[in-house]
Amino acid sequence: MRILYVTVGDASNPGSRYRVYAHLPFLRSLGYEVSVLSPLRRRPGRAGSRLWRVLDLLRAAARAGSADLVVLYRVTLPRPFDRLLRRRARVLVFEYDDAIWLPAPAEPQDAATAARYEANFAATLAVADFVVAGNEMLAARAADVLAEVVPTAVDVARFTPATTAGSRPGFVVGWVGTAENQLEWRRLAPAFRAVVEARPEVRLKVVSDRPPADLGLPVEFERWSLAREAAALDDFDVGIMPLDDTPWNRGKCSIKALQCMAMARPAVLSPVGMNRDVVRAGADGYFAGSSEEWVAHLLELAADRRLTAALGCSARDRVAASFSLEAVAPRLEAALRRAVGR
User: Fold this and answer.
1) What is the model's pTM?
2) 36 and 89 together in one domain
3) Burial letters for 2-23: b for 16+ Cβ neighbours within 10 Å, e otherwise?
4) Which of 3, 31, 132, 249 is 20 to 30 A from 334 via CA?
5) Residue 281: DSSP 8-state
6) CA 249 to CA 244: how far, in whole Å?
7) Do residues 118 and 69 share a domain?
8) How confident is residue 261, by pLDDT bands cut at 50, 70 and 90?
9) In terms of residue numbers, what domain contains 79?
10) CATH classification of the domain holding 37
């Protein structure tokens, strides 16, 4: 079977890397002929972006007829490209791992922008034969289309810990994410201050594309790089994923938490969206829904290093069993077979 992936970005794009490129070796090992069509270039902001988008969609339409299955990864189809791809593709699969019917928080939030996102998403759903969604909440958005939930997978061979959580002097509470999402943890600055005042050995480490603003906290910054994506997390003793309960955040697929857990680090998460399905509270991490709970759980882990290590080991086992490439790739392949044989 010939599969054509049309993606929102090349392998430098995190979503494309985790949800498309990571699965190519497995699919090809089963005899599938898989090709990937990524954008001609990174779109240069608003100026000229529509032209590049049109060119990308025309390229996709030209290639679609030679494939048995076309998968649109996070690519939505404005009119008239929805009808054009529908005519060209034998089987059309729409895959998404965020609430992409909404503008991302860093994008304009005006009514016209929101309406455009919703319309393009709805048009793509209307012509799709099948949906692959990153979590249950996202799949529910495709109620009128056959859908399969396939979580984002972590390569546990690559994300392998070199140290044990809680085994070194000091105690590092770690967060990883883009600068536009730093506000999520910065809102918890008073809780982190309370933790540091109670246990001065605790420090916060932020792995991001830009340094955080000075919040009067002992913060260590490391600029994110693909080469140190796993090694940077090995410096953590616990990983955190605070999220506001918003429609956009409910669509997230918890990949940052899963990365930390794969590194045998317990996770403390906001009980928002898929986070609830990732952590088993008290077994491999905790949920924190208030400042008081954040303080209590972080202090407990900082005080009890054996508990931190034990929860970390359980967290890695959890990822290996349910969210590793070995566990998820067969689910993806089964979903694609189901799409063709629907």
Assistant:
1) 0.93
2) yes
3) ebbbbbbbbeebbbbebbbbbb
4) 249
5) B
6) 7
7) yes
8) very high
9) 2-153+325-340
10) 3.40.50.2000
